[in-house]
Design goal:
Blueprint (H helix, E strand, L loop, with lengths): L1 E9 L2 E10 L5 E5 L6 H8 L7 E6 L2 E2 L5 H4 L3 E4 L11 H8 L1 H4 L5 H13 L15 H14 L4 E5 L7 H14 L4 E6 L7 H4 L3 E6 L2 E6 H4 L10
Parallel strand pairs: 3-8, 3-9, 6-7, 7-8
Antiparallel strand pairs: 1-2, 1-4, 4-5, 9-10
Helix pairs in contact: 3-6, 5-6
């Protein structure tokens, strides 16, 4: 995936300016920056949830605007920072939405097998028939992440995915995502990178969004972290 000279304005305010980056398959990239830096906006433009004002987003060499929606849903998935569900449904029913690009609403045996496998990955087997409104914040976050995983895409964008998770569950979640497939490209958005989050994320690259521009760090810098905030 490539982003070339991407710019985005919201309410006549420049949020992103000339963003350039390349994400390789098989890597985990941590994307950090203060609140309001534009992290969520960039993730949304990279998966076509938001239009861009200028520039290009390419997936497998193809402009993102040229992809059919059903085909794009097989290539890239995003977990938004805030997820609300107005319809009363179970965890298993929520996961079934992640298989829609493949099943078109008619679940097959393969779809059920994928759902069961992901429930097991995230230690949610016993919650499959629980309604979402009966879950704790951490359980609901894992269920939302599970829906993204059953979508089975090469690119996954996660906006603060470790919200509401304790240290143990954070480690389980990141290990699960990393081990799912060697083809996956994972972009993780977090407000700041702390000493305790480094071993959880095990990132290949760190991107810091500040003043509408990107700076790049490496795992070598991460190894020298001693303070609570990762700086460049």
């Amino acid at each position: 995936m490539k982003v070339n000279n991407l710019c985005k304005n919201i309410c006549e305010t420049c949020i992103l300016k000339d963003i350039n980056l390349e994400l390789e398959q098989g890597t985990v990239t941590a994307f950090i920056g203060p609140n309001g830096a534009g992290k969520s906006t960039l993730l949304s433009t990279m998966c076509r949830l938001l239009s861009i004002d200028s520039g290009h987003v390419l997936i497998k060499g193809k402009e993102i605007t040229k992809w059919r929606t059903d085909e794009l849903a097989k290539e890239i998935a995003i977990l938004k920072q805030q997820n609300t569900y107005q319809v009363k449904m179970t965890v298993r029913e929520l996961l079934s939405f992640g298989r829609f690009p493949y099943s078109k609403g008619r679940l097959t045996t393969e779809d059920y097998e994928v759902i069961d496998k992901v429930l097991g990955y995230l230690d949610l087997e016993s919650y499959g028939d629980r309604y979402l409104d009966t879950l704790s914040g951490g359980q609901l976050q894992r269920a939302a992440l599970a829906m993204i995983l059953v979508q089975d895409t090469d690119y996954i964008l996660l906006d603060e995915p470790l919200n509401n998770l304790d240290m143990k569950q954070s480690i389980v979640v990141m290990q699960t995502i990393r081990s799912r497939t060697f083809l996956i490209c994972l972009l993780v958005s977090i407000p700041r990178l702390t000493a305790c989050s480094v071993p959880i994320l095990r990132t290949s690259k760190v991107l810091r969004l500040f003043h509408k521009e990107i700076k790049i760090g490496t795992t070598n810098k991460m190894a020298r972290i001693r303070t609570s905030v990762f700086t460049f």
